[in-house]
Structures are given as structure tokens and as C-alpha cells.
Amino acid sequence: MALKAESEADVRIENWSGTHTASPSLYFQPDTPSAVERIVALAHAAGARLRVVGSKISPNGIGLSDEAMLDMAQLDAVLSVDVANRTATVQAGVRVREVVEALRPHGLTLQNYASIAEQQIGGFLQVGAHGTGAGVPPVDEQVIRMVLQTPALGRLELSPTHNPALFHLAKVGLGWLGVVTEVTLQCVPAHKLLQHTFVLTRQEVVERHLDNLRHQHMRYMWLPHTDTVVVVTCDPIVEGMALPPPPTTSESDATRPLRELLLASSAALGKPVAAARAAEMSFAQLRDELLALAPLEREHVIRVNRAEAAFWKQSEGYRVDWSDKLLGFECGGQQWVSEICFPCGTLARPDGNDLRYMRDLLALIEPSDLPTPAPIEQRWTRSSSARMSPAHSEQADDIFSWVGIIMYLPTQDAEQREAITRRFAQYNALCRDKLWPVYGAHQHWAKIEMPESADELTHLRRRLAARFPLAELNQAKRELDPKGILGNTLVDSLLLETPNTASSAAAA
What we know:
alpha+beta, Uridine Diphospho-n-acetylenolpyruvylglucosamine Reductase, domain 2, Uridine Diphospho-n-acetylenolpyruvylglucosamine Reductase, domain 3, 8-stranded antiparallel sheet, 5-stranded antiparallel sheet, globular, disordered C terminus, ALO_C, D-arabinono-1,4-lactone oxidase activity, FAD-bd_PCMH_sub1, oxidoreductase
């Protein structure tokens, strides 16, 4: 009863992509650390399940539950900024963009960013967001101190010098060991970057890849069924350097190939789009409208990819702005996405597996009957010291590549969305079965979906146990959360030590 008095009822939660929903029995929105402490303690005493959630951006709904949920959005304060030591201490519910704006007057910023600035800092770190740059680690490496509210041991303060083993285990802890309430981040001086967007052929990527990797930040966008690879690099501006002129092509001119295809295709299908309406659409909106016409028709998707290739060719050029403005980017509309991470040598000695993976992936999907929209995003990071990061390594100079496949959900028609979901599951399964074991690839924690069969779950659990320190994680779980209140069906099924325990937890 004490728990129910502090909660909301009849709440329906949906993640950003609209791919997962939950109707929690109790929904808490505490606004102080003491309120979090009280709710966690009451849930522990009652043995009641309680799942912590951030901005609900994770594609797999990792923070959702039909049992009780703890929303951290109101713990959103920037508590202090230490300019001399370049650190910021923030509450876990503050959004990345809010941290950036609080740091700006002090001449500081974050070292790296993921694509979406609406993420809360707690979720940003707990699921292992990563950004890009072969010499830059995932974002969890910016954490130098964290406060974890645990069911059994209460408030714990963790850092590299204060309980370091648990600190490195809990940094990417998936909200499973405790509720992160406060984080201290190591910042860097605010800086502007020179961004260069250009297009290469696949062969040119092979020839120039080692040079491309040396940029501070770099990513590829591979466009299936085209010979186009979009390269986006970002590097610090050196004082006194001559800056190239900005692009001269307007967005209206650059998007013309997509707009013309939309007008022609919509008319041919008897669903004409008005030219005036099309003229007002951005690149991402045009792509969504085009895909909505026939999202599962392979030849149509190929035409859209080729129009996108023409758009990027017209969009080549340079741009100068603050790092936070350039390192985030437009992800498009609602979508299914699966992203994996695998080792590819060191920055000094890359082993070539990053490009071999893409060669094998394209050779696998392009002859198939799958509709494979663009882009396939490829990024890189240095290794992470967080034990549960897919990019974890004891060697600081190891590098990892991250590759994401996608299918958009440009329609609200339930049957069509279900059909797209089934096709994406086939796309993902093809990669999972043919490529991941070969390259030692593991999925981003926010993009692992619950396996559809017991055999698939068993196989996934074996792969996770071979890659991650699950015995140590479960030992910490027994000490910090002995009643197992902080999980949900997905996380418990993947991480709890025995399938029987996972099954009973899923049914609880």
C-alpha cells in the first residue's frame, strides 16, 4: 500500500520507435534522491519488481515493464561544474542536451556524443552508448564517479578508486544492479569541429580507409544496391587554419532526386503527393514518405536508396560548428534497428575486419529478396573499461567497429508494421547466423530483442556468457539486489545464471 500511494496508475508507455509498449502496474516519478531511496527500499521490502527507465529511446524497450516502473525524468539537475578539473556532477535524469547547455558558459563540453541528444545521462551510460571515433572511447569512459541506489545495500558511491571492481561492472549495468541517481563526468574544453561530408565508391573506401580512420570522428553510411558510401569526418579546428567555404547547394536542390521520385512514384501508385507539400519536406521526411508507399517492395526500396545516393552526392562539402552540434545527427523516423560491435585490431594496426564485415554483409543481402533500406551505419570507438560494454577490452588501444542495420516504420497501419517487423527479423537473423559468430560480434544492449524460441534464447545466453563476466555480474546481483526486483523479462532472461531462474523471473 505504501508503494501504491506514491505511484501513478493507468499509464501506458511507448518507446521512441513505437516498437515496444508497457502498461506498468505502478509508475513512479520521484523528484529527489531521497524519494528514489524510499521507493527502492519499499519495493525491496515487498519483493516487488521495479524497472528504472530513462527517455524511452532504446529500440528494444530495455527499460520497460508491465510491473512497476521508476521514471528518472524529474531528477534532472546539473549539480555542479568544476571548471579547474573539467568535471560536471549531474543527476541521472538530466538530458544530454541540457548538460551540454549547462557546460557551455564554462567553456566545457562532453568528449563524445551518441546520435540523439534527448537521452538521459543515466540511460546514455547504462546501455553503453558510443558515438564515433577510432581514437575516442564509448561515452561510459567519461564517467569518473557514480552513485548507485541499491535494494539491499542502499546508497553506494563508486569510482575508479572507491570500489573499482563494482564501478567497472556497474558503469554499463543496464539498470540491473541498482538505480543510478548521480554521475560525475570528465569533460573536455568546448571546441569547434570541421565536418567534411563526401561520397566514395566502395573500392575508394578500401583504398582510403586507413587515412579515414585517423580522423578524430568518422563514420560511413553504406547505401545498399549502390556504389555509394557516404563518409562523414570531424576534426578539431587548428588556430590559424584556412577554413573551406560552406556548401553552395541548397537543401532544396540536394533533395530534388528524392522529391522527384516521390512525385512520380506516388502518382504511379494512385496516391499522388502534392508538389507543394513535397517541397516543404526535409530529407528524412521525403525518405519516410517514399518508403511508406511500398516499404517491403525490394525494387522500390532500391530506387529510394539510389535517390538517397544522389542526395548525398549533392550534399558534399564542409561545415564548421561546435562539437555537440555536429556529432549528433538525424536518425530518421520510427524504425527497427539492430547494431553490433566487434573488434578490428588497434588504431596503429587495424586488422581489416571492419571492411571485411561490410563486404560480407553486402554480399549476403544484395542478392537476397530482402528490402534493405539505407543507410547501413558504420562507426568506430576505442575500447571501454566497462566490463559489460560490447567494446570492453583490457587493452586501451584496441578499436571496435559498430554496424547498424535498419528498416523504417513509416506507416501507422498495424498490419503493415507487423509485416515490416517480420521482414526485419529475417534480415537480422541472416546477419546473426552468417556473420556474428565469424567476427565475434555482439549486439548493442539497447538493441537486443527477446529471442522468439527457447533454442534461440539458449544460444544467445551461451554467446553472452562467453563474452561478458556474467558470473561476477550475478554475484554482484545477489549482493545488491538479492530479491531480483530491478529486472524485467528481457534483461533477466539474458543475464540470470540459469534458464530456470530466468523463466521464473519472466513469469513473475
